[in-house]
User: Which sequence fits this backbone?
């Protein structure tokens, strides 16, 4: 039986088309090698470049195509000069619309070290944890609703709801059930990151987390204030397994985590909800290196693997799960060999060379 899936592809701006192109080639190759899997790629222009040309970053027909698709693969959105009159970047016209319009409430950010790249942290402890970020509320709920009075006073409001915290925490505990535990001792632990000692909104987040944790007695529950969390990420990352937090805090600690394993070029991500999933590298559009064939495509490739894994679990399709594992293994083997190495993690290989190496390795791991 051959299963077919439609992937809406939004290459975006800057290096987005370059890294997305590599990811699509890898996905098409694994589907070809598997034989029992067909992926249809439906490409659309949603970008800051389009906004500068037409005044609309993402037309309704593109949003509708994303809503109909089985999954969405996004490159990167945004250019420094593409801003609304109030200073907000145009990239929110795409990513926030998709997150809110499709209720992609869970931001999944794996932080994983690979063999091959030189350790970023001096202690060299193993790094393998996942940040689960609430995507649809928190401080970013004010992204289009803040108040600016006469350019003298500006306010934004944080929004924390019981439903929002419950479902993001349930996602975190369910993810912990599927993992092998933290590297230090194998214990399954979900860590709540907040600022409950200062703000009532975060105290509410913590109390709601504790109510969910009480239903998962076989998984340990932990708490960290966000400032202390940054120290743990740098000094003792092997004590982390699954981390759950509010929108803005998740945004910040995800980038810190990525930096500890080599940078944003090694950081895939997923934004998922009950009915839809969007997958993208965690980095931005990096227009300063666009078109130079030097961007690291591995975050985009690994995001594609996350997409296949999510689709496989959602559709109970073992071919997708196997394909996701093969892509991850191919990336691991390319990095471990250190023969083809992205420039941002100490090598000199081009975007296309890294893509070709992963492409070639896929034939080995699937054979």
Assistant:
């Amino acid at each position: 039986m051959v299963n077919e899936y439609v992937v809406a592809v939004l290459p975006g701006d800057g290096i987005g088309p370059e890294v997305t192109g590599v990811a699509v080639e890898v996905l098409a190759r694994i589907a070809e090698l598997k034989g029992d899997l067909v992926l249809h790629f439906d490409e659309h222009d949603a970008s800051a470049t389009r906004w500068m040309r037409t005044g609309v970053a993402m037309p309704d027909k593109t949003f509708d195509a994303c809503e109909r698709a089985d999954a969405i693969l996004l490159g990167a959105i945004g250019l420094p000069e593409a801003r609304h009159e109030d200073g907000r970047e145009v990239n929110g016209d795409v990513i926030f619309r998709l997150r809110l319009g499709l209720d992609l409430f869970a931001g999944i950010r794996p932080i994983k070290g690979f063999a091959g790249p030189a350790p970023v942290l001096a202690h060299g402890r193993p790094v393998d944890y996942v940040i689960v970020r609430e995507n649809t509320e928190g401080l970013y709920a004010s992204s289009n609703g803040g108040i600016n009075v006469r350019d003298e006073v500006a306010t934004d409001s944080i929004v924390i709801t019981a439903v929002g915290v419950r479902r993001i925490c349930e996602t975190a505990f369910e993810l912990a059930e599927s993992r092998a535990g933290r590297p230090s001792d194998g214990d399954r632990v979900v860590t709540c990151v907040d600022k409950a000692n200062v703000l009532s909104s975060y105290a509410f987040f913590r109390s709601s987390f504790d109510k969910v944790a009480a239903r998962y007695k076989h998984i340990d529950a932990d708490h960290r204030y966000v400032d202390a969390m940054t120290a743990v990420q740098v000094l003792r990352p092997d004590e982390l397994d699954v981390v759950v937090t509010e929108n803005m805090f998740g945004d910040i600690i995800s980038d810190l985590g990525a930096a500890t394993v080599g940078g944003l070029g090694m950081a895939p991500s997923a934004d998922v909800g009950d009915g839809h999933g969007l997958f993208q590298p965690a980095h931005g559009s990096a227009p300063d290196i666009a078109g130079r064939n030097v961007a690291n495509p591995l975050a985009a490739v690994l995001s594609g693997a996350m997409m296949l894994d999510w689709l496989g679990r959602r559709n109970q399709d073992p071919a997708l799960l196997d394909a996701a594992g093969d892509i991850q293994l191919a990336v691991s083997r390319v990095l471990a060999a250190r023969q083809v190495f992205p420039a941002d993690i100490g090598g000199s290989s081009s975007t296309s060379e890294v893509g070709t190496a992963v492409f070639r390795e896929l034939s080995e791991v699937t054979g």
